Amino acid sequence: MNKTKLFVALLAISLMLSGCGNKTNSSDSKLSSSETETTVINTTALVTTATTISSTSSIISTVPTTTTATSITTSSSATSTTTTTETSATTTTTAYDYSSEISALEQENSRLQSEINTYQNEINTEQSNISIYEIYKSSAESDVESAKQQLEEAQNTMVRVYDSVRGWTLQPDSKAIAKAQSNLDACQQTLDLYTQLISNSQSSIDYYNTCISNNQSTIDSNNNLINDYRSR
Questions:
Q1: Which residues contact 145 (CB under 8 A, 6 or more apart)?
Q2: At a CB cut-off of 8 Å and minimum separation 6, what does 2 contact?
Q3: Dihedral sign computed on CA atoms, order 192, 198, 202, 203
Q4: Which residues contact 172 (CB under 8 A, 6 or more apart)?
Q5: How far apart are CA 200 and CA 125, in angstroms?
């Protein structure tokens, strides 16, 4: 009886083990199928994703590139237009009016020309004075020559002079000689005076001529500067 119970128990255990083996194989088959489906699904998802990414990449690389190029071109055009406008504005702003400088130079030229006219009048006056001085000088030269002759005559004139020791003797007329020498000295002084006056007038003429030359040089320089201002 005990052996029979033992045999039945072993048999039951064998049947149970056999059933479990079949369930395990079935489960393994189901797992393999699931893995396969999962693999397929995953593969499909990857392909779809790759395709989507590829398409998206194409769209991204194409559209933004075109848009960016257009933007850059437009921006460049705008930049060029702005630069041209600014250059034109700058050219208009830098124009300078030299009318005040020209007016000042013209006024200076007028003043300098007025001085030149004054100097020229002074020169004319001095030249007129020289003409008069020359006449008086010529007369003084004649007087000097005459006074020299009178002195020489006085020196050659002998008069009788009484001396208590020597008695009557012939000697030069000291009074006549002194008078003739004084006259000669006066004539010489007059001649020297007119000679000096002529020299002074000539020096004044030279001075005025120098002033005229300097003023004229300044006027010429101012005129060149005026022409330069007007040409700008």
A1: none
A2: none
A3: positive
A4: 154, 155, 156, 157, 158, 159
A5: 13
What does the block give as tokens for 72? 């850059």
Q: What is the rounded CA–CA span in Å between residue 85 and residue 77?
A: 12
Q: Are 194 and 94 in contact (CB under 8 A)?
A: no
Separation of alpha carbons 39 and 45, rounded Å? 10
Residue 198: other Cβ atoms inside 10 A: 19
pTM (2 decimals)?
0.54
Q: Is residue 108 within 8 Å of 225, Cβ to Cβ?
A: no
How far is it, in rounded angstroms, from Cα 138 to Cα 197?
13
Residue-wise pLDDT for 24-80, tens only, equals 444 444 433 333 333 333 333 333 333 333 333 333 333 343 333 333 333 333 333
Residues 6+ apart with CB under 8 A from 201: 126, 127, 129, 130, 133
Contact criterion met (CB below 8 Å) for 172 and 157: yes
pLDDT for the residue 96 = 83
3-state secondary structure string, the chain? CHHHHHHHHHHHHHHHHHHHHHHHHHHHHHHHHHHHHHHHHHHHHHHHHHHHHHHHHHHHHHHHHHHHHHHHHHHHHHHHHHHHHHHHHHHHHCCCCCHHHHHHHHHHHHHHHHHHHHHHHHHHHHHHHHHHHHHHHHHHHHHHHHHHHHHHHHHHCEEEEEECCCEEEEEECHHHHHHHHHHHHHHHHHHHHHHHHHHHHHHHHHHHHHHHHHHHHHHHHHHHHHHHHHHC
Residue with tokens 């030299």: 98
